[in-house]
Each structure stands twice: as structure tokens, then as C-alpha cells.
Amino acid sequence: MKVMKFGGAVLKSREGFTQMVNILRSQSGIPLLVIISALGSSTRDLERSARSAENGEQELAFSICRQIVREHHHFADELLANKETKEALNFFLDECETRLHQLLRGIAITHELTPRTLDIILSFGEMLALHIVRHFLEESGFDLTFVDSSNIIVTDAVHGAATPDSSLTVLNVERVLLPAFGRSSIVLTQGFVAKSSTGEITTMGKESSNLTATLLGELLSADEIIIWSDVEGIYTADPKLIPNAQPIPQMNYEQARRAAVCGLKLIYSTMIDPSERANIPLVFRSAFAPGGNFTRIAANTDSWLPLFATHEISATVSEISVLNGSGWIVLDALRHFDVGRWKDLPFSISITPEECRFSLPTGTRTDEVVKFLHEAVVVQRHEI
What we know:
It is a single chain. By secondary structure, the chain is an alpha/beta fold. It is built from eleven helices and 15 strands. The protein has two domains: 2-230, Carbamate kinase, CATH 3.40.1160; 307-379, 2-Layer Sandwich (Alpha-Beta Plaits), CATH 3.30.70.260. The strands form three sheets. Strands 3-5-2-1-8-10-11-9 form an eight-stranded mixed beta sheet. Strands 12-13-15-14 form a four-stranded antiparallel beta sheet, with helices on both faces. A three-stranded mixed beta sheet has the order 4-6-7. The radius of gyration is 22 Å and the shape is globular. The chain starts with a strand and ends in a 5-residue tail after the last helix. 43% of the residues are buried.
């Protein structure tokens, strides 16, 4: 069995949907749990709508909501061929818009947006995406079973950052999810969304669709968990910023966890634990280049390629971390370059045997510093 998660970076165009179909067809005969994230910027836009309502800007909230639903109507019209299916899906989307307007109107009247209500609103992003993907895959010839993740994953009641309860979730896996594989080899569900033990909708935090994938992968004893995005795995630095960044073929769980803590955008620390507990390889691939580079995170593997990650520690301080290489070698590499141009930039350096961290004021040439460091450490020092 494999678990595959397709994110919004893939499902933002017809090409992404087509690539998903090609990938699933290449896995013919293998039981697959497919996890879907919200399309495009739906989650951010839903929150923006809710915040607008909280500020009393009801018409703005409605306008944002209408635009979200309109975008999903566009997907339905573009992707689906069957007239009856398309009409049924468009009717469902309109019903969702009506329900969202009811919630937004209540928020605008009371000027109060509780974490519980925000979770309900945000959960619509995954639900809208899930129904579009479901119908598209069925029209593409797949025999699949749909299961709502809120009927599987049980969490605590910390809305917005709920923590899954594995002992309760595994009961639903046995009762709901495993029987679904008896009906078809592909089971479809959504990420991010769960229910508390008292039955209220919860969400598990930023990018927690990946956590959904690793948690259910653990409880299903999957052979592999694949996160499909629009980048070919993990690189020594953001390839959109550093064109000559090098792919990192493999990492171990601890290296991945440290990278997540230091700001690597593809990985979030909570998603690592279930894979590590069950010793299931976690693979990052590009849906647009399935045969291209990828990164495999597993036990008993190491990366000796340095990895650059950046994040804001506070509103005034940012940190650039160089991981997976000796901090002393990093400094040795820097000695061969002219650092005079950085003398006007106040920064501090922290060194440990396996990493080097540069702290500097937020917003002050951070990208330029990363490019300089990457050139010094990766391009000019291949032995690291």
C-alpha cells in the first residue's frame, strides 16, 4: 500500500489534474490512499473572508467567498464532461456558498470569530477540492471510494492546531478506512480536517495535509508515503532563489526535522513523527516531473550536502541555517571570499558540529546573503 498526497501547488490547473491521473494510472493494482489539499489559495482566502466578517465588512467577506466558489465552478466546468455530474457538482458548490454566507453573516453581526467557527469555515476548502477531484477521477475511469477524513481522524479540541489521538483514530481506521479498501483499490480523502472526540470539526494546523498523510500511513502500515508538489524534492537551497541549487537525494528523519524547524517550507516537523515511528519512507516528488529528482527521507540514511533554510525568529531578527555540514568547514569556506561587503550588515554566527546559523535583521538583504553563502559553501566547496 502507498499513501499519496496531492497539494494545492499541483491541483491549480488542468495540467496538474492530468498529471495526477497519469501518476495514479502508473500505480495500477496497488492499493492507494489519496489525500487531497485545498485548491490554490482557498484556505488563505477563506480565512481572509472570515476575518473581514469579524471586522464588520460583511459585503467584502461575501465577495471573497463568492470568488472562491466561482473558481471552483471554473474547475468543475473545465474538468468535467458529463453534463449531469457537472450540474450536480455545481449545485453542491452553491449549497456550500449558502452555508458559508450564513456563517459569515453571523460573524459580521456579532463581530466575533471563534476558533471553532474558523475551523468550520476553513474545512470547506478541502471539502470543495475533494468533491471536484472525486468526480474528475471517476470520469477518468477510476473505481474509487470516498471517505471523509473527519470520520477517521480524532483530535483534541484545540481548534486551529489540533493534535491527533492515534489510539482513537486507529479504531476509525479499522472501522471505516480499511473496509473502504475492500470496495476499491483507491480510497480518496482530504487532508487538514478532523473531528474532536466530542464531534466538532477541527483543523490540525498549517500544511497539516502532510500530517494527515503520514498519520494514516502509519496506521495503515503503508510501504511508502509520497508528497506530490511542484518541485523535484528538496534542494540545498530554494531553487527558485538559487538556480544552481543541488538536489538532495536522501535525508534521515532527524535531518528532516531540523530542516523543518529551521524554516524549510516543504517539511513541517509534526509530519515526521508518524513516518519515523512506523519506519515508513517519506518521499517528496514533483507531479510535473515524476521521473525527475526526488528526496527520500528514511532511517539509516544521511545527507552530507549542506541545506540552507531561512526563517524569521521575530519581527526584527531572521536566521539563515546551514545544516548537514560541519560549521567549521562552513567558516573555512567563507574565508576564501571577500566578506568586506557585509561589514555594514550586523549579524552574528552560531556554530555547532553539524550546523552554522547566521542571525541578521529581518528584511536586510537576506536573499543576497543566502546566495553568497550558497556559492561559498556548495558551489566552491564540493567536498562538504
